[in-house]
Amino acid sequence: MAPLLERFVTYAAAAAALASLMPLAARLGWAFDLASHFRVQYVVADVLLAIVLVARGKLVFSIALAGCAALSAWAVLPYVAFAPQVVATAAAGAPTIKLLAANVLYRNHSPARLLEIIRRESPDVVLLVEYTPEWASQVDELRTTYPHYVEGSRTDPYGIALFSRYSLDAAQPFALGDTTAIEARVRTPAGPLTVVGVHLRSPMTPARGAMRNLELDELAQRVSGVAGPIAVIGDFNLTPYSPFFADWLAQTRLTDTRRGRTLSPSWPTQLPIVAIPIDHCAVSRDVLVVAHRGLPAFGSDHYPILAELALAPPPTGN
């Protein structure tokens, strides 16, 4: 039994090390990019296996695995709450706006649990993706509470709808690749905020991964043309640990609202041990991030996310 255990630990350590190193080549191929999304899991596996290897006297291998853990942790640390980030807060008494986004899962036939969450959290803007005609027929409650809305239901996973407590200017769906997105200027009490709701392609094949990256490029071009405060929210189908997401943030000069606050995963709800954050909210520099939270499961394979924001006050003259 001991030799068998020895082989298992050796093979597991080799697999963990290989998986941890694959993200270094994320720009070179689809499989390497997929590997970049599981950095938190790599840290845990590498540390545990390094401890086992130390106990078995394999010091060199344990040091190598510790190095792999450090490599993965480097990508993760900016998102944990104790990381040395400058976290903006709203000025005392300043109004905030809460955005809730949920991938409802087009095969999920009941909105009851999500409607309960929305009632409890009372967001100002609600974005739903994978929004189907069946869901559209069951959410009159949203249309009452949020009388300003844009809906684009579809029978496939790329329907979308945006509901707002506040008036909307220039609210319209638009094509993003072969998916549908929504752009709307929300008249918040603190001033206008452009909200862009998205659902990018899932990278389940190399072709779909390439399509998602093209959608990121199209989205970056559109966002760059928007003046004033903006928040882009929805299901991006990639994690903050992918270089493609980092490139998109650099292109748009937006900030991920999760950064410095939480690692909270958003998919899949059925397998928490491998869950990763693929639903995001990213904001311009004139938007202050007050909070970012993951919300409870409601029957979809995604957890909803909630971002609480405040508009930065205009600069004062001398």
Give your account of this protein's structure.
The chain is an alpha+beta fold. It has two domains: 2-79; 97-311, Endonuclease/exonuclease/phosphatase (Deoxyribonuclease I, Chain A, 4-Layer Sandwich), CATH 3.60.10. It is 35% helix and 25% strand. The chain contains nine helices and twelve strands. It has helices at 2-21, 30-35, 39-55, 59-76, 112-121, 133-136, 140-145, 206-224, 243-252, and strands at 97-103, 125-129, 148-152, 160-164, 168-176, 179-188, 191-199, 230-235, 255-256, 279-283, 287-294, 305-311. The chain has a six-stranded mixed sheet with strand order 3-4-2-1-12-11. A six-stranded mixed sheet has the order 5-6-7-8-10-9, with helices on one face. The chain starts with a helix and ends in a 7-residue tail after the last strand. Mean pLDDT is 93; it is low at 83-88.
